[in-house]
Write a structure and sequence with these properties.
4 domains; GIY-YIG endonuclease; eight-stranded mixed beta sheet; single chain; alpha+beta
Amino acid sequence: MSNTEEIPSETLQDAIRKLPHQPGVYQFFDVENTLIYVGKAKDLRKRVGSYFVKTAGHNRKTRSMVSQIVALKFTVVNSEWEAFLLENNFIKTNQPRYNILLRDDKTYPYICVTNDPYPRIFPTRRLNKAKGKFYGPFSSVKVMNNMLDLSKKLFNIRTCDLNLTERTIASGKFKVCLEYHIGNCKGPCENRESRESYLGNIKEAENLLRGNVQHPKKFLQEMMGSASAKYEFEQAEGFRKKLELLERYQSSSIVSNANLADFYVITLINKEDKDFVNYLKIIGGNIRYSENFSIKKVLDESDEDILFYQLFDILSKETFEQKVEVVTNLETTYSIDEKIQITTPKAGIKKKLVDMSLKNLEEYIKHKEINKLDKEDDKLNVVRLLQEELHLKNLPLHIECFDNSNLQGTNPVSAMVCFKNGKPSKKDYRHYNVKTIEGPDDFGTMREVVTRRYKRLIEENSPLPNLIVIDGGKGQLGMAVDVLKELGIYDQVSIVSIAKRLEEIYFPGDEFPLHISKKSQSLLLLQHLRNEAHRFGITFHRKKRSKSALS
């Protein structure tokens, strides 16, 4: 791998033309020298150059990113796998604004079998291969704990963290614990079980963790037969119960074909700006792990790119000594590593597993969509409740809320936030530099910004909100009402104000405010609006104040 080279911003276009036709990783930086995007490429010059030609074909986010690029760095690598490794590292370390968010390694639980003379088996989220062998990653802690418990019950693996060596055991410094007395451990700490016997049990536990059920099954059958032959019927009964436990575990996994070599299934379905991924791990002919997740697209990533981000994320955490196969529903030209063979089966058991994976994914998408609809229904129910409690003519699907900000009369600004269908619509948020008012004049500020907002909507023939909320009391509300009347739209919208502290709702012309129950969801919606407008206004005011201080 070569050293990373930096290209100065003033020669960006010329330098792009001089990029090598080699695989590598590129980094884009903005005017503040902040890393905004990391990408990999089979051909650095072609890929980087593609961002700066035919920009009309890019989506809005890509065009936005390209407009901010002032400098780039690149690193030439030897293979696509090296590019994946380096890109993955840059993304997780820096989390650039325009990159897909890769899942953190800490979300994956593993089972570790230590390198100790009398190995221990325990769960962990930290991969340190110097400590021992790691099995996983597991799609859930529950699945991992079931495997861990099964391994310990079947093979009497110790649960203590004693420093067991032949020397420390011979010194007599350890005593058997409760685990020995209840039959969960055979007491290697007092040499009641030989190291050879203990390591034999560890070997079978590792076979089970690898998904090889047949080998531990045969081992337990032999142990049961040996105990019976010696008339040790109590021990034989114990092995029989363990066999039943193992067979129950085996029957709980979906058998595909016992003659199949181990492989992975990764499928992808695209829905608008999201890709949904299903991952299956086939071990010993059985589906041992399954996981569904969704990835939100950031730029113009292809389905193939998304698939391989996830493929890399999964396989980079695996340890495999021989060639492995990954089957997928996408035709691909990627070649990641010589140990990884990627295929798209057309028939046979692997095609059936791909179809099953896709069916699983479709159910997951359907479930996500139902949950989304349920949440949207909940939001709409709150909007309906707001209409009822405020006695509004129209359902307030479109609400706009105004808030003024100034500090001791300096840098007066105003903010408007917009909620649609009960949720923030941040693309419709606006902030205003107050132009006609000097000093702390809340009423004058409200008149100016409400006038500017709705005069513009009228001129653009844009839809008016169903409800306007003013952060303030009767005075601010009255000023906003005067503006709406002057613009001739007072009869077309509803307007209220919400006073701080007592959370009183004022209506035009009413002497006394309305008090909504503090437990009401509709009041919580109004408070959310008011607080969001305040947050948005304060943030803008701080930026303006900082600029004033610098100048």
